[in-house]
Amino acid sequence: MKKFISNSPKDTKRFGHNLVNKLRPGTAVALSGDLGAGKTTLVQGVAEALGIKNQITSPTFTLMDIYPVRSKDSNGVNSAKSSIFETLVHIDCYRLDSPKEFGEFGAMDYINDPKSLVIVEWANKIKQHLPKDAVWLNLKLGQSERQRVITLTGSL
Question: Could you tell me the residue range of the domain that residue 142 belongs to?
């Protein structure tokens, strides 16, 4: 278990950006933490690192958003990490009433897909559906209004 301190949303995005460089194909990232702890902010950093230009918001009502990953930078050069993943799958389980609902909207099609990076907010609600080697990140409010404590469980 490793702990990281984020002192701003920018730090949390940077953590997400750096996380991408450590992920392997087929990795699922499970996020947990209270409302407002920075889960979506972290996903925004991951998306930026993958060259995704879309505005990333939490798919609380749609449950799942799928973003194509840009495989080339603005100069037409292949990006090392972008070439590993073809899609970012952002799932929010906040509104799920039971774990079985996770299988009802197509999310299972992406779990373990080596071409997809799957990030699940409120993952503790569907833990049994995630791979045993999922990377777990718990985000908690820190000692100041902007501070967050990110705890990583699992191996990168």
Answer: 2-153
Determine the number of helices (DSSP H) and then strands (DSSP E) in the chain.
2, 7
Number of domains in the chain: 1
**Is residue 156 classed as helix, strand or coil in its secondary structure?**
coil
CATH code at 38?
3.40.50.300
Rg value, the chain, Cα: 15
The count of other CB atoms within 10 Å of the CB of residue 99 is 13
Contacts of 110 (CB under 8 A, 6+ apart): 66, 87, 89, 116, 118
Write down the mean pLDDT value for the chain.
90
Mean pLDDT, range 101-115, rounded to an integer: 89
